[in-house]
Amino acid sequence: MTKKTTQIQLGSPEETTSLAAAFAKHLTKADVLLLIGDIGAGKTHFARSLIQAKLGYAEDVPSPTFTLVQTYEAEDIEIWHTDLYRLTHPDEVVELGLTEAFETEICLVEWPDRLADLTPSSALTVDLKLTETAEERLLTLTWSDPKWDDRLKDILND
User: Fold this and answer.
1) Tens of each residue's pLDDT in the chain, 158 residues
2) Which residues pair with 142 in a beta bridge?
3) Residue 92: CB partners within 8 Å, gap ≥ 6?
4) Cα–Cα distances in Å, from 147 out to 19, 34, 107, 114?
5) Do 17 and 49 meet the contact criterion of CB atoms below 8 Å apart?
6) Which positions ≥6 away from 35 have C-beta within 8 Å?
7) Which strands form 77-83's sheet, in the order they lie side by side?
8) Any idea what DSSP says for residue 133?
9) Could you give the CA distance from residue 87 to residue 83 in angstroms, rounded to a whole number?
10) Which of 7, 64, 85, 103 is most buried by a 10 A CB count?
11) How many of the other CB atoms lie within 10 Å of CB of 98?
C-alpha cells in the first residue's frame, strides 16, 4: 500500500484541541492513532482533547505514562489511551490486551515504536513536532489504509 501524508500547521494549543475534537466526531471501531513526537510536543494534549470531545464532557484524562493504559467509555465504544514508553518488548503489548483492542475499540497509542511488528497496517500516524514558535506545532498525518482518505477530508474540513 502507498503511504500518503498531509501536514497541518497548528498555531496554538486551542487549534490542537479543535483538530482533536474534529477527529473525535469521525473515529469509530478499530481506529488506531499512533501519536509520535518528542516529550512536550503535545501527544497527551491531543489525546486528552480527543477523548474529552468524544465523551462530551471534561473528564480528567491523565497521561497513562505509569498506568500504561487508561480506558474511557464513549457511547457504545471504549477509547484506549496508551503510553508504551516504559515497555521493553512487544510481547508486553499483547499482555496489555492492546492487540485485541485494535480490532474493536478506538486506540490512541503514544510511543508506538514499541509495537514493532504489532503495529496495525490500518493505523493513522499523528506526528507532532515542536517549531521555533513556542505554542506552534507542525502536525504530519501519515496513512496507507484507504479508509482514511475521505475521513481525513471530513476531519480537516470540520
Assistant:
1) 799 999 999 999 999 999 999 999 999 999 999 999 988 889 989 999 999 999 987 777 767 776 788 898 888 899 999 999 988 888 898 998 999 999 999 999 999 999 999 999 999 999 999 999 989 999 999 999 999 999 999 999 87
2) 5, 125
3) 114
4) 19, 16, 16, 24
5) yes
6) 43, 46, 47, 108, 109, 110, 112, 126, 128
7) 4-10, 137-143, 124-130, 32-36, 106-110, 77-83, 69-74
8) S
9) 9
10) 64
11) 22
For residue 46, which phi and psi values (nearest 5 degrees)? -60, -50
Instruction: Report which residue type is found at 95.
Output: E
C-alpha cell at 36: 509520535
* Amino acid letter, 144: S
Distance of CA 13 to the CA centre of its chain: 16
Cell (9 digits) for 11: 498555531
Task: Give residue for cell 503511504.
Answer: 3
Q: Which of 33, 31, 35 is nearest to 85 (CA)?
A: 35
